[in-house]
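Hello,

Following up on my earlier ticket. Below are the two sequence lines again, exactly as submitted.
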Amino acid sequence: MLGKDLLGLWDTSAEDILLILDTAVGMKKLLTQNLKKLPHLQGRTVTTLFYENSTRTRCSFELAAKYLGAGTVNISASSSSVQKGETLIDTGKTLDAMKNDVIVIRHPMGGAPRLLAENVKASVVNGGDGMNEHPTQALLDFYTMREKFGSFKGVKVAILGDIKHSRVAKSNLFGLTKLGADVTMYSPATLMPQGIDRMGAKIARSREEALAGANVVMGLRIQLERMHGGLFPSLSEYAKYYGVSEEHLKLADRDCIVMHPGPVNRGVEFTTAVIDGENSEINEQVLNGVAVRMALLFLLCKNRQGGNESA
Amino acid sequence: MAERILMDGAAIARTLTRLSHEVIEKNKGTEGLCLIGIKRRGEIVAERIAALLQKGYGVQVPCAGIDIGMYRDDLVSGYFVPDAHVNRLGFAIDGKKVVLCDDVLHTGRTVRAAIEAIFDLGRPASVRLLVLADRGGRQMPVCADLVGKNIPTSSSEWLDVRFAELEGEDSLGIRRTDETDNENF
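Thanks for your patience. The regenerated structure is below:
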């Protein structure tokens, strides 16, 4: 069963992943009816501790917590004591002392959530750490895929874009291989991390090979803020040789779904026609994100009976 | 265990007919009256009463079902996600005289939840409770205003209500159960 924290899908079992997805089904059913007032986290506090910018992940977690009745606190590194030099562990212990129950952390360095989790009583959820993992994004991707295809066995997932800097790609890979899906990746060689094929990904040699017969076409944002020059000539050249247009999408399965974790660079990873096309599940992903995060907070807090004291 | 039939279709029909007249008697007419049935079987009771009022008095009394899933008192203690539906009655209940309908009254927890659900939808002038059967065993300060049949039971007995809409026939039976008191709702 799910432990105190959710740090990544690398060390989360297929059973736990499916438990979260199953729980999210009930949550989504309530959300789609605009029923957003469950009592399970009443009296608990969820803090989002973000050392990097975010719109949807932070908002999604905050709403999920609120829909379950929790109180929420948002801390941005740019406007907190982090600016005065407070260490991550000290920040975590301060939150513990205030009887906080869950910390959702986003940090530019891989492994930061684990360091925090080992030093606080609160449950820690990884909201994205450096180039390592973004487990809740992958979970909502899985939810979206399962809703469409029913299961993961043999589902062909093509992931295109900035694999190297993408924590979404890694969490998806770790989870999807456990669930029995086939993962194919394609990107400029400079944006493909070495050794990813040994972790279960098939690396395509061309855009056409990656897309052929794919059930899921997932685009990843080109993360210019993590690039320090020279990885590819220009965005327009990337769009021309690596982007996906409606024409390219015809190579994929007719009933394929188009996914993107957002934010999207329109006209780079996907053309606008693909983003807004009928195969696109990009907006549905956002709704599923709230349901999945509700399910995760629901399950993590179930293991926290008695509150902070007994943790 | 073998089930004993306490009410057959004819008995249920007679009882519902009497209850429909009692509704009018209590409310001194049909002015401002509306029926709300607790899903699913209470909704059927409400629909039957509404049909009888239409037949006997020629009036169309507003009638709807209400889902109490989001209002159960064991959501946290039982720690589950309710399979609930949003409540849209199709008529306003502010200032109305609500007759809340259910098939069996037992612990009173369902009724408590239903009252909370009703007050999320508006402020009725009054809420009365109509039940086909009252089996006793109250855990809440709840009392029915209109009772079809009083059937005192022990916690190891269970009432089965069947309606033509769901099971193809109307009947009410009693049986012994091994699992005691596990179904408060």
